[in-house]
């Protein structure tokens, strides 16, 4: 393109290269070739596994999900599940339950441990160091069994001993404390609180604006929380006036009932076309140069075509698979009917109720009744195990994050006269958080996966339940497949949440 | 710059003998373990005076000016800033820090905050200024240092010279009576040094009391009222730029000048 190219270079530029040297062709061929290889390998492996299983007359189908099983679980939403699928579902809920509670407590404890390791107080610092070094250097399985064996030697529970209907009771059956639970009036009360939240948003904005305009200390966050609390208390007395809200959900339920299957199908197709086309348009716009020239490489074309193909595949799926659309309609209708029924309650119903632990003796042995909030010793062993273990690692993350803030930042904050608390809030924590978050997300993943050690102490998590299910049905491979899919979706969910925060926190650089 | 009154000119030709004392140091000493960083440093800096501290690296210049707003703690002697003595009393330390602005060699801007928020943070949280007012002031200061158009960028998107000018604006936002500069141009590319020095000159002309640790001899000759030369934690020589650069008294000063000039 230059004015006076030498004859040889012009020749090289203009001559079409042979196919095997043309990078455009090479790229396309490798992309397609790789796709074919991956698909073939997958097909080969699954068909091989299928053939092998057939040869040994092991069936790898998922029929057990519907078939009845004879399983009794120690705890969960359903202790006598009527089918294999139901049993696995109970196990999943138990795993999610212990993971979520564990993540919350491990975070709180970890932050405390991390700050304690940086404390100016010698004793606090030493204790935190001992905590971290002990817990992270002993295998988690050993720790879980250790806590379990401590709990099993606690005194027995019986109808005579111990404060029946007391506030707090601990024995070899577990730890029981008072339970606050949602009563019939809860959903009406929730409406009041939601209105309170909306009001508090405006109060927050207002207080913030006053602060910005006059510089006065208006504590907008405290005001907003106060408004929500006020509405919460008010709601306890006035919530029955919202019983009519149920009829809205009733109307929604009948709307879902009357919609044709075509409606969700159209919606899903539109969604899939919409998403794919916005992605493509954005992608093309992003690759436009300042002068408006499109600069797409072959990889980019491949991605565009791939996206379009996927969206077409989804449309075909939604059109052919009418069951999915009718499932959406049915479950939507069911959901709104359930919500409607929540509002159909006696006007005097309270939003909350509380009950203290009790001890009952249904058969030979006394145990805790259902009124208190009871942590079984298996749950407690796994809970203490994963929380303490993970808190040591999170503590180290917190310590590292705070130490990673350059000393110059603290000096600059001091030099402009910021108080220690303000420097912590505006300078140190925002920068430390950015360092702490990614490794802590990993610890959340670890904690979730580590709960599978619950099998050692008989807590009914998905692995323990699944083991029982495949022992009874012989469907090892499908159950293991469900395990893997379940843990994969848990981990991906956590990753997505953590990454979302991560992207928001990134520093802007050149 | 054709004014003749003392208010708007700098350099050793003006008479500051009637001005109030802004910084008084008496026999200030400091050790890092066995190493003595400051050895009986005594000096008085007057209001509106511009003092340049020179000396080889490791001579205690930075340690000294960092003691003046208590980023480092002196162990012996006394330091008084605008009549407030620096003791362990937190209230005194906070009062001194809000009157003394500091500019660092490595800028130390807050990377997670926009330029404008870097400047308004302290006025809003320390001076309890309304946000709107603080932002107007910040824009005015950014105009003064010549970069109002960068207000909504992050520090990481600016050049070194621009970052250092933001740091000066950030310090000025607290309306300090004294400005300390700890090697403000040492981390900058040569072509950016001038833009920072120009801002500092303008500041000196406006009557700010300034204490500057620097190796910029040109700046020292042009702007300083006095030169303080330090070596091995001690003040070796104090003099006007004319006498110090042309006719130093001490042997160590001569050696130092022969190496840098």
Structure commentary:
The complex is a heterodimer of chains A (510) and B (261). With 510 residues, chain A is mostly helical. Among the domains of chain A are: 51 residues; 194 residues, MetI-like fold (Orthogonal Bundle); 82 residues, no CATH class. Chain A contains 16 helices and seven strands. Chain A has a three-stranded antiparallel sheet with strand order 1-2-7. In chain A, helix 15 runs antiparallel to helix 16. The two termini of chain A are 33 Å apart. With 261 residues, chain B is of the alpha/beta class. In chain B, 36% of the residues lie in helices and 24% in strands. In chain B, helix 5 packs parallel to helix 6. Chain B is globular and about 55 Å long. The chains are: A mainly alpha (510), B alpha/beta (261).
Question: Secondary structure elements and their pairing?
Answer:
The complex is a heterodimer of chains A (510) and B (261).
Chain A: H1 7-14, H2 23-55, H3 84-117, H4 122-136, H5 140-152, E1 169-171, E2 174-177, E3 179-182, H6 186-214, H7 220-238, H8 245-258, H9 262-286, H10 298-320, H11 322-343, E4 352-355, E5 359-360, E6 367-368, E7 373-375, H12 377-403, H13 407-415, H14 420-450, H15 462-473, H16 476-505
Antiparallel strand pairs in A: 1-2, 2-7, 3-4, 5-6
Helix pairs in contact in A: 3-4, 3-12, 3-15, 4-12, 5-12, 6-7, 8-11, 9-10, 9-11, 12-14, 13-14, 14-16, 15-16
Chain B: E1 21-32, E2 35-46, E3 50-54, H1 61-68, E4 76-81, E5 84-85, H2 90-99, E6 100-103, H3 115-125, H4 131-144, H5 160-172, E7 178-182, H6 190-205, E8 209-213, H7 217-223, E9 226-231, E10 234-239, H8 241-246, H9 251-260
Helix pairs in contact in B: 3-4, 3-5, 4-5, 5-6
Distance between the termini of chain B: 28 Å
Helix fraction bin of chain B: 25-40%
Number of helices of chain B: 9
Mean pLDDT of chain A: 87
- Write out the strand line-up for the largest beta sheet of chain A, numbering strands in chain order: 1-2-7
> How much beta of chain B, percentage-wise?
15-25%
Biggest pleated-sheet summary of chain B: 6 strands, mixed
Structural class of chain A: mainly alpha
**What is the count of β-strands of chain B?**
10
Contiguous uncertain segments of 5+ residues of chain A: 1-6
Our Rg estimate of chain A from Cα atoms comes to: 30 Å
The chain-level structural class of chain B is: alpha/beta
| Helix amount of chain A | 55-70%
Determine the oligomeric state from the structure. heterodimer
